[in-house]
Amino acid sequence: MFEFVTARELFELVQVGSEIEKDQLEYVELDGWVRTNRNNGSVGFIELNDGTYFKNVQLVYNKGDESYDVCASLNTGDAINAYGVFKITEKIVKMYGVDCRADVYDDNYSTYDS
Fold first, then answer.
1. What is the largest distance, in Å, between two alpha-carbon atoms of the chain?
2. pTM above 0.90, yes or no
3. 82 in any annotated domain
4. Which of 10, 32, 63, 93 has the fewest beta carbons under 10 Å from its own?
């Protein structure tokens, strides 16, 4: 089951959370805005910011993921709801296997069918 969290909660967990707390949080859900989206064809990286913390959460998506096409088509400023597996690598908060099939809004607040 996915647990809704904020970027601040994730970074505070990394900084002061116990190993037990870190191990218990596996699947997370985040809402936020795309700051950058880099895609090299086989793997892509989205920097997501939800406004609760000055650092971004990095979302990682791969060519084999169901939502690869949706994730690869996201632009700076798009508001998204993302699901994924929470990982900590070198004090960087990341989500792997990101699923962006949820609501992606355009400027007119119309929902894309993704």
1. 43
2. no
3. yes
4. 63
